[in-house]
Amino acid sequence: MTKLVVAKPVLEAERIEPEDDRPAIGSWWWVRSSECVDDEDCDLGRTWLGCVIERGSNFAKLKGIRYSTRVAFDDMAERCEPCPNPDEFIASKINEHKTNVRELMGEIQRVCRQLGVPFNQALAAAIVESIRNDGAMPHGLDVTPMNPHIGRTGGEREQRVRELRKVGR
Fold first, then answer.
1. pLDDT of 30-71, one tens digit each?
2. DSSP bridge partners of 51
3. For the segment 7-23, what is each residue's pLDDT rounded down to a tens digit?
4. Three-state secondary structure of the chain
5. Cα–Cα distance for residue pair 2/11, rounded to 1 Å
6. Is residue 143 within 8 Å of residue 128, measured between CB atoms?
């Protein structure tokens, strides 16, 4: 009589991680506002571009230029839509604002010519007034004293005098 031996197959346990379907930090989304908490001029239903800056156990925090919100993962599908190429949208907005600034600067130059006021002088006065009113310093603004010799020595002094002559001060 033959004895049959049944061998048990060797089973190795393998852990299968569930797919992480939460939005990645740094991903961009079109967000539809559904509530206004902090923002007085929030428009219900408004769609805005936001970036995921934080993830919790059941929510994603999205931040845009003007708005910020927390969206529950359960509500992501109905309130948010992925934006695969945010750079294109951001670049178009930057160009739109640059165009507006160019048009406004052209208007300021036209008014200055009509009034006989040098454009650089009018612009400098507006910047100084802006700094006085809200304390904001425009990026790249040179705030060295009007007297080119204060606090300067040697080559710095001559360089500053040349700079001031270029802008007509």
1. 999 876 555 555 566 789 999 999 999 999 999 998 889 999
2. 28, 63
3. 777 778 787 777 778 89
4. CCCCCCCCCCCCCCCCCCCCCCCCCCCEEEEECCCCCCCCCCCCCCEEEEEEEEECCCEEEEECCCCEEEEEHHHHHHHEEECCCHHHHHHHHHHHHHHHHHHHHHHHHHHHHHHCCCHHHHHHHHHHHHHHHHCCCCCCCCCCCCCCCCCCCHHHHHHHHHHHHHHCC
5. 28
6. no
Ordered strands of the 59-63 beta sheet: 68-72, 59-63, 47-55, 28-32, 80-82
Phi/psi of residue 31, nearest 5 degrees:
-115, 130
pTM higher than 0.90 for the full model? no
User: 110 φ, ψ to 5°?
Assistant: -60, -45
